[in-house]
Inverse folding.
């Protein structure tokens, strides 16, 4: 592993409210993959241990073989994040193998439906059309249990990113490397496959992207800043991308609660060399009007809390919401790193959740460690 301080721009004067981190080609050998399914993988541990001391919580994550997607939020925003769902789609061999495909996390952020889609699409120069087909297949296959946004394209704002594998056509190796050395990247843009495909694919035209004003991120010799020096001499390309799509305003609610986005930065980070790709970073400012300003539930500890007696909590719903037999209340230590880091939890009976002035009592028994 490595220090991710620079990658996450932790020394910036203003810290982000959210971090969304997508990785591809995470090692997924059978033994490691089974271990990662039972426990958090090393990359998740690295990001959690780095961000938790700064007040961030891992709200959700999803893993499909080598694809990993992590969503972190500052603690203050967590009560206003709802409707969290995650899913995946395989596009590998016969749509069965998960070495290629997409993983997504969708959620409501202060009432605005957001979706984050991390993809690893088909490789090689000649498969540009197949990459678009895979993207459309992922959009068609991923559905959510939601009336407001049952599909990816129904979300108010979508971020689409990952190793999309689009290459630079026509130009020879010498010209491409010359443009890189002279930082005349604009001479390569017209032959970037994603840029070319956007001209003839209406769906792709709905997605925006910042200028590719950084050197291509693929393909490097490991542990170096040297482009492929092997016998294959693969041509550099912007395979790693971040795009976004704002859904057109379709309802009075969109007018009443506007959402705007501005990209502040789009660049690659050349100092990381543990992969044959260089990571790409994008920072965005979201300007939104909150659809709600209070959390769903008010919690109040009752009496003195001690490790040797049951803990009692009083809670009261502040807003109407669809309750479920899956509702639960968790107890967390101060400084917890993830939503799954609860010490203990208790189920909430479905008929206990109602919007009234009544305080509802929940007793949680804290498991004690055994001496050894």
């Amino acid at each position: 592993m490595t220090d991710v301080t620079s990658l996450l721009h932790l020394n910036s004067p203003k810290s982000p409210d959210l971090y969304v981190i997508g990785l591809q080609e995470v090692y997924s050998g059978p033994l490691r993959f089974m271990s990662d399914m039972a426990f958090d993988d090393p990359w998740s541990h690295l990001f959690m241990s780095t961000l938790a001391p700064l007040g961030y919580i891992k709200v959700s994550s999803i893993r499909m073989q080598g694809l990993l997607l992590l969503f972190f939020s500052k603690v203050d925003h967590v009560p206003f994040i709802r409707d969290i769902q995650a899913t995946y789609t395989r596009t590998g061999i016969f749509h069965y193998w998960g070495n290629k495909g997409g993983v997504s996390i969708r959620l409501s952020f202060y009432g605005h439906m957001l979706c984050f889609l991390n993809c690893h699409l088909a490789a090689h120069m000649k498969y540009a059309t197949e990459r678009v087909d895979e993207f459309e297949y992922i959009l068609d296959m991923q559905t959510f249990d939601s009336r407001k946004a049952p599909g990816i394209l129904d979300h108010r704002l979508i971020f689409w990113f990952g190793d999309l594998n689009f290459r630079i056509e026509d130009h020879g190796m010498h010209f491409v490397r010359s443009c890189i050395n002279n930082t005349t990247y604009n001479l390569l843009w017209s032959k970037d496959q994603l840029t070319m495909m956007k001209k003839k694919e209406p769906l792709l035209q709905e997605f925006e992207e910042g200028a590719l004003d950084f050197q291509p991120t693929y393909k490097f010799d490991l542990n170096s800043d040297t482009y492929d020096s092997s016998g294959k001499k693969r041509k550099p390309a912007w395979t790693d991308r971040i795009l976004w799509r704002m859904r057109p305003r379709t309802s009075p609610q969109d007018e009443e609660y506007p959402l705007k986005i501005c990209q502040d930065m789009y660049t690659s980070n050349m100092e990381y060399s543990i992969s044959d790709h260089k990571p790409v970073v994008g920072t965005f400012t979201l300007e939104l009007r909150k659809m709600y300003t209070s959390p769903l539930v008010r919690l109040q500890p009752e009496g003195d809390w001690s490790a040797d007696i049951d803990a009692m909590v009083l809670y009261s719903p502040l807003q109407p919401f669809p309750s479920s037999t899956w509702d639960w209340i968790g107890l967390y230590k101060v400084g917890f790193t993830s939503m799954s880091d609860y010490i203990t939890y208790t189920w909430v009976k479905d008929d206990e959740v109602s919007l009234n002035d009544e305080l509802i009592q929940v007793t949680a028994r804290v498991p004690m460690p055994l001496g050894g």
About this structure: The chain is about 15% helix and 30% strand. The chain has two domains: 18-288, 297-364.
